[in-house]
Write a structure and sequence with these properties.
Elements lengths: L1 E5 L3 H13 L3 E5 L2 H10 L4 E5 L7 H10 L5 E6 L4 H9 L4 E4 L4 H12 L10 E3 L2 E4 L4 E4 L2 E3 L3 H12 L7 H8 L10 H13 L5 E4 L3 E4 L3
Parallel strand pairs: 1-2, 1-3, 3-4, 4-5
Antiparallel strand pairs: 6-7, 7-8, 8-9, 10-11
Helix pairs in contact: 2-3, 6-8
Protein name: Response regulator transcription factor
Pfam families: Response_reg, Trans_reg_C
GO molecular function: phosphorelay response regulator activity; transcription cis-regulatory region binding
Length: about 220
């Protein structure tokens, strides 16, 4: 899952980003409305966490523009005001959810994950295939009842493979969805992560390499 944080309070923005990365999400951060619109023009995001009171371009205008562009990602609007009228105004702009500050971080995570499930084709809250059961909310994964200890990136890669429902996922797609824009596109990190993930999943092997295309979870 990839998330864009748009928040001009830099300490808050960076804290949110670090927390979401701990939840195995790929996160980009910008601090004003102009940069938000630029990033959203060339990156695909499942969720945009958007502060309402932004410099250069107001959060309301960013929201309007993203909706007008038919941006596929869902918008979670943040504001210092918890007033009902403000929440109604934010939702009327096209935001999908609204969270007043201060907020409990666990609620933010739950809302981001709930929105991400609605950003594309509907997916179940718990993903299952080939005896693998992955729960994104509880950050737990097991195979045939055996609990697995995965790193954040291994977890994110496996989640993308499960979401593909047997479809091929390219290395470029995995870089985009499990890491962020600071990763070197020529890195071999996907291949290395895939090797350790295969080892942890154990026998029989379930991740297939499709030459020249990417990876997929094999069907039964």
């Amino acid at each position: 899952m990839r998330v864009l944080i748009v928040e001009d309070e830099r300490v808050l923005a960076d804290t949110i980003a670090e927390g979401l990365r701990e939840e195995a999400m790929a996160v980009d951060v910008v601090y004003d409305g102009d940069d938000a619109l630029e990033r959203a023009s060339y990156n695909e995001y499942d969720v945009v966490v958007l502060d309402r009171d932004l410099p250069t371009v107001h959060g309301d205008d960013v929201c309007r523009e993203l909706v007008a562009r038919r941006h596929a990602g869902r918008i979670l609007m943040l504001t210092a005001s918890g007033d009902v009228d403000d929440r109604v105004d934010g939702l009327s702009l096209g935001a999908d959810d609204y969270l007043p500050k201060p907020f409990v971080f666990s609620e933010l995570v739950a809302r981001v994950r709930a929105l991400s499930r609605r950003s594309g084709a509907p997916v179940p809250p718990v993903l299952e295939r080939r005896g693998i059961r992955l729960d994104p909310y509880r950050r737990r994964v097991a195979r045939d009842g055996r609990e697995l200890r995965l790193t954040k990136k291994e977890f994110a890669v496996l989640e993308e493979l499960l979401r593909a429902e047997g479809g091929v996922v390219s290395a470029e797609r995995l870089l985009e969805r499990a890491w962020d824009e600071n990763i070197d596109p020529f890195s071999n990190i996907v291949r290395v992560t895939m090797a350790t993930l295969r080892r942890k999943l154990g026998e029989p092997p379930v991740i297939e390499t499709v030459t020249g295309a990417g990876y997929r979870l094999e069907a039964l």
